[in-house]
Each structure stands twice: as structure tokens, then as C-alpha cells.
Amino acid sequence: MKWSRIAATQRLLAREQGAITKDWGGKLPIALVYPNTYHVGMSSLALQSLYRLFNAQPDIVCERVFHGYRRLDHDSVPLSLERQRHLPEFAVLATTFSFELDYLNFVTMLRNAGIPPLSRERDEGYPLLLAGGPAVSANPEPLAELCDAFVIGEVEEILPHLLNTLREGMVNDRTHLLQELTQIPGVYVPSQASIDRQEQMNVQRQWVRNLDLYPTHSAVFARDTEFGNLFLMEIARGCKRGCRFCLARCLYRPPRERSATLLLDQARSGLKFRSRIGLVSAAVSDYSQIEELVVGLQDMEMQISVSSLRVDPLPDVLLGALAASGVRTLTIAPEAGSERLRLAIRKGIQHQDILNAAEAAAKYSFPELKLYFMVGLPGEEAQDVQAIIELVQGISRVFHRRIVVSVAPFVPKAHTPYERQGMAPTSILRERLQRLGTGLRGMNVRMTSESVGWTSVQAVLARGDRQLGPVLASIQRPTLANWRRALHEHGLQSEDYTRARRASEWLPWGFVGTRR
What we know:
- There is one protein chain.
- The protein is α/β, with parallel strands linked by helices.
- It has helices at residues 3-14, 38-41, 45-55, 102-112, 134-138, 159-169, 174-181, 247-251, 260-270, 290-299, 316-324, 339-344, 351-363, 382-398, 426-440, 452-462, 468-474, 480-489, 495-498; strands spanning 28-34, 60-66, 92-96, 128-132, 149-151, 187-188, 203-204, 231-234, 236-237, 256-257, 276-280, 303-306, 329-335, 368-375, 402-409, 445-449, 512-513.
- It starts with a helix and ends with a strand.
């Protein structure tokens, strides 16, 4: 172990407020693993909430582990932040996966820690690997050969049962513990399940009935993170809209809200740490008590930021508060350029709604307007790409400041109405991105786009099956070349997973029940 790394970790911990450091004596040690950087992971409310909930138990010690600080670290042995412990020293590795591409980082972390990635190669001397988060809740099968157990959905209501089972089970053999975990609603144990076309088990996604019982907000404050100047607070979960491409709508149904009274009480406690609050939900502007909440926050003299907005509604009280708080970028997501395609994907907004939002951004003098679009949507034609260019031109006529256009290739996700759709070929995606770049050139517009190559990897992992476990485990370093080589060596290709699925075809994620 390099002492310079220990010293750097200790300096990082010293700059935080709210970190919890416990003595290990007589406690169950859990490593809370986020397989991305500290800079990104500390902005995850899921990670913050789990850290607080685990450490609220007097007989549990929970420490955070990240895959690097500001950059991914594929070469170093991962250490826990609080006491610089190695991963094999923990009884449980609890990993939350927000993004499918983090699966590759996870494998690298295990290998660097000396832990065999494949579960069949681990005995009871290694930690139990427990996974959760939106990526694996939608489809855990790509990691089924790696992780011992999965929590499908929201963990809050089953957490007491889960922790009791882990406490008691660690004194028994691993097989008995895994059998006990299968008795917990929403917990999926691959080694105890037979997943094939003939025999499908059913794991029901868990969801919280009353969000007010489980406040979700920042627990640890660190300046040098993505949202380091904010007290983050989840105001609602789920979405009442019907966008056909949206995974969040399916994973977090039914839509639920926290009461404004409770949120204002949370904000008062957060005021001790930050004067700026970040409101988090699928669509902040859809929150039914937004005016009461915003006025209450302004009465406390708190500045306000938001995670996302819909163009309809776009409340004046919220826009005014954002402008007064010095928010520099207003972000909206038209998703598609043409009315026809937005209607097909059930986005639920019209051309004039988007222009009205741009006019509102100009009215409140936001320095920057950011627009999210997708290419490769089902039914997309060449004129739909041209429609994005024309829509941005129309927006630029009413908003004369900086415009950023962010474009992502569409990935069909499990459990959405598009789960059986195929992904557009990479050649078409590259051509459409190039066409957009050419068409937007010359306007006062900056265009950013996601990598087509890595988006294809994301699609494979989002729609994959158990055959991908050995593929992931064999990758020594997460690069596109190594990924493609590993697929080839295991007799697989991307098209096996990115293709369209027939209506009668078995789906790897079909055993996960997402209905409420």
C-alpha cells in the first residue's frame, strides 16, 4: 500500500462535513461501493441515503469506496475513504449501479482488490457481493455470474429485514445465507434461481408507499464534487408522463411526492451546511406544490437549483427563483425535433411549448440554454434529424445567448414500451450525428454528443443475459478494444443484443416484475 494514497484519502476525508467514522469492534463491516469517481459518486442521492441508513445502525460500520477521485483509476488498489481499508476486509460489498458502463469499472475494482469477479470462483473467505440501483433493477442478468444477490427496486422498506438477515447469516455458511436472502421481497439471488424459457421465477420490484417516512437528502458535504455547493433534496419519485423511451417512469412507478412541509423542514436542517439547495426529481416543474416550496425556500433566503425541467409546465415562480439564485444554465429536453416523432415517443410537448420555454429563458436572462435530443429513435427518418436543426434555429431567434445542444444515441431499455425495439446501426447513428454537427455549425451553438461506440456497449449491457458475466470478468482494462475482443473470444457480438426482439421472444429481464 502506498502511504501517499493513504495520505491523499485522509486529506479528502478531512475536507468533508458529515462523514461517519466508526470503530470496527463487534460490528458488521459494509463497503458502500460506487464504481465511478468520488466526484460523480458523491452527487448520488442513492449513495448518500444508503450511507446514512447503514450507519444509523449501531452494530454496522459502513465506509465508502470509489473508483478514483476526479478521474477513473484503473491501476490502484481501492481503499475505503473513512479508514483506508481494503475491500476483502469487509463482510459485504454493497454496490449501487446508476449506469451500465460502471459494470466494467466494478470488475476492475474487484480485480485490483484481489477478489475474483466470478462468484463461482469465490469462497466464504471473500465478501458477499450485493448490488442495487436503477441499472441492475431493470436487468440484473449481465452481473448474475458476478454478484451474489441483488435488490430490485427501492430498498428503504426492506432494509431492516435485509440487514437482520446479513447480521445473522454471516455466522452460517454462505449457501444458507443466500437461501435466507431469497425470502426477502425484491431480493434476487442468481445461484438460487433457474432463469430460462421454460422456468421463470418472479422478483417483484420494491417501492416506498410513503416517501415522507424516508427523507432523502445530502448526508455528507464536500466542495470538490459535481454538486459540492448544494444541499441536494429529493422532492418526488417517479413520473406521471408517458414517454415511451423512459426507464425511470417504469422503475419508479407509481409517481409519488413528498409534502412541502416536510421538505421545508429538511431544507432548514440543510441550511447549516449550504445556502443553496438542489431540488431533485424526474421533473421538478411537475411537483404539485412547487409554488409553496419555492416561496418557503425563498423566505429562508436559500438559493435554488433544479435537476430537470419540463417545458410544460414551466412555472414563473420557479424560473424567477432560479434566475434570482444565479443559475446560469436552464436545461430542457425536447428529445426529438419534429412534432411527428415527439408524438410517436409520447413526449407530450409541442413545438410552441419549446419556443415558449426559450422565450422564458430569454425573459429571465439565463446565460445559457441547454437542449437534450436523441438520435436513432424508433421510426426516426432523415427529415427528423433536419427538424432538430430547424428547431434549434427557431430557438436561436428568440434566445440570443449561448445554446448547447446535447445529443445521445437512443438505447432501448428493459421494461419500457420500446424494450423489444432494436438499436439503430452505428453507421446510421454516426451519419446522423455528423449531419447534426454540420447543420448546427455557424450558429451560436455548441454541440456535444455521446460516443456511439460506448453507447453500443451500454445497449448490450442494458439488454444482456448471463453470457455477459464471463465477458465482463475477462476484461483486464475497460477499453472499447478490450470489450470487443472479449465479446469475440466468448463467441458473442453486439448485434446479438442490440437487435430487435420478436413479440414471442423470451427476454432476459422478463422475471423482474415492475408493475405496482
